[in-house]
Amino acid sequence: MDEFLSEKEQIQYIREWWRENRLYIFIFGALVIGGVTGTNTWKSSVLNNQLAASSLYESLAIEISENNLESGSMIAEEIYTDHADSIYADQARLAMAYFYMNQSRDEDAANELRRLINDPDNPEIALIGRMRLAKVLLYQSKYQEVLDLLEGSVGHAFETKFSELIGDAYYGLEEYSNAEFAYMSALKNTNSPQVVDAALVQMKINDLPENSISDVADIEVNAQ
Question: Among positive and negative, which fits the CA dihedral 40, 41, 44, 45?
């Protein structure tokens, strides 16, 4: 999967994570500094814990950029063990999933993401993990597992991307009418903030066998 093997995505990962999460970090810092929830000792302890986790995560990013798998894995395990409740634990799992894919260790990447999606404390991160796990499963040609993972998950910011991935899974299963129906759903869901590459999705539709278009029309009629 290009999403996992792209050097450009690796370079941009830390920047994107900061842009997406800086508001939460600032809010957390304001709560700690403002003394909303406890004693000075407690605030100092929490702040020190977050700073330690942040420092470890920065070290992890350096090890990943230098392609040091062994030391990167050790740092990640330290984050998981000592800072499991911090925002950096989930981010470390996302980062390690990227790292493992680049090392052709796709099952290790999948396992990192499976642990992430089973964490109920951060549903948005869990959705990201679910989406990226689907990409790994597609890479592994585990198409039915993709459908089991994504189908029925609606009403969230990644619904459009999920539809495209579901289409990819049906394509892999050679269920072309279902694939086109999913791709068309991705194109129709224009209100989602997580917009797909419409040109790419349309290209996927165009590459489907011609008889799938009539099959999709029958599906839509029967659904009404």
Answer: negative
pLDDT in tens, 176-201: 999 999 999 998 865 555 567 888 99
Predicted TM-score of the model (pTM): 0.72
Assigned token pair, 130:
């679910």
Domain 1-140, CATH 3.30.230 — does that match? no
Tell me which of 48 and 14 has the higher pLDDT: 48
The DSSP output letter for 104 is T
The contacts of residue 166 (CB under 8 Å, 6+ apart) are 146, 147, 150, 151, 182
Average pLDDT over residues 141-150: 96
Q: Which two tokens stand for residue 30?
A: 């304001």
The angle that helices 106-117 and 123-139 make with each other, rounded to 10 degrees, is 150
